[in-house]
Amino acid sequence: MSSTKREIILGVGGGIAAYKSCDLLRRLQDLDFAITVVPTPSSLNFVGSATWEALSGRSVTTEVWEKVEEVKHVSLADLAEAIIIAPVTADLLARLAQGRAEDLLTNVVSASKAPKFLVPAMHPNMWLNESTQENVKILRARGFEIMNPENGRLTGEDSGIGRFPQTSQIISAFLTHIGSQQDLKGKRFLISAGGTREAIDPVRFIGNRSSGKQGVAIAVEARNRGADVSLVLANSNISDVAGIKTIRVETAQQMHQVLKENMQDCDVLVMSAAVADAKPVASPSEKIKKKDFKSIDLIANEDILADLSSSASDSQLIVGFAAETSNIEESGREKLKAKDLDFIYVNDVSGGAIFASDLSAGFLISSDGKSTHIEQTSKAKVARIILDNVVSRLSYANG
Known about the structure:
By secondary structure, the chain is α/β, with parallel strands linked by helices. The chain has helices at 20-30, 49-56, 72-79, 90-97, 104-111, 124-127, 130-141, 167-177, 213-224, 252-263, 304-310, 328-338, 379-398; strands spanning 6-12, 33-39, 82-88, 116-120, 145-146, 150-153, 159-163, 188-194, 198-199, 205-206, 228-234, 245-249, 268-271, 278-280, 298-300, 317-324, 343-348, 359-366, 371-378.
């Protein structure tokens, strides 16, 4: 799954309005959401799996007993930033209110702590039925956001309240519910990502496995929350992202220079790049012949994060990253203190984990001593957790 997009689940209930959710899916994709469609089995009578797979670019399953080894109801619940179900039938409302978990969708809802947004659509008599209205009250009391249906023409000659709302209205209400407010509007972010390379000769280099996915995910999340984002990206195959100023570099020295030039203009620095610790003393302009290889003399690169942190103003907030293979949390605390950071995200990369993956796990440690263990989840969700903490710190500083 993509690490640069925000993961949501689109549940689809078994009503005739299911076909309208095809347009809803497209419009959500336009907002940079990555969408996994989870239909109820009965909804496939209206829109089939092939349609959802073609539109979403992802496989579609309806039952917990399909691909059991993937534990879909748990993995999807963990990855999703939010769940939107449209349409929701009277039957589905009842099952959700009773906490029943009979198919994949209701299991995912039960396993998820993410915001849940429901869009009912049904005949007026069913919507106004006392049982349905009682179920709506129950779910709202539990924190579900339930959008009232519209008045209008329904199936056949019937009309009244129960019509599926306009896509634009659904999206506006959904974004408000998931807290997609512009809480970083006016803030300037400077973010480093990717892995630097140090030339041995014109064809060989010292490098690392970093893909840049986590840094790009943070840049996208910051952009989505209203920030002005500059991304210094080293040796990554990820394409430039709309709305983010991307400066591409190769070496640690180049990255250091660009960051120094832009540091004074930022409110938040996020150093997620994997910077090479050392470089060859000399890098000849001609390829070194195999027979001439004996040893490579190295010299340490300057510690970019330590340098930038030492010159930062009191109002600038700095987030560092660390990749460790042992004593993960302890090592993170030591680096946080040594480099005078506000936050550090440290993860376990032993055995090649994390690098180039769409998933991550680790500890987010703050300068006030708090440590949050982030279990394996998408890098987009890690980005959201990090920026939630950044927003809290900025709000406290401004309060």
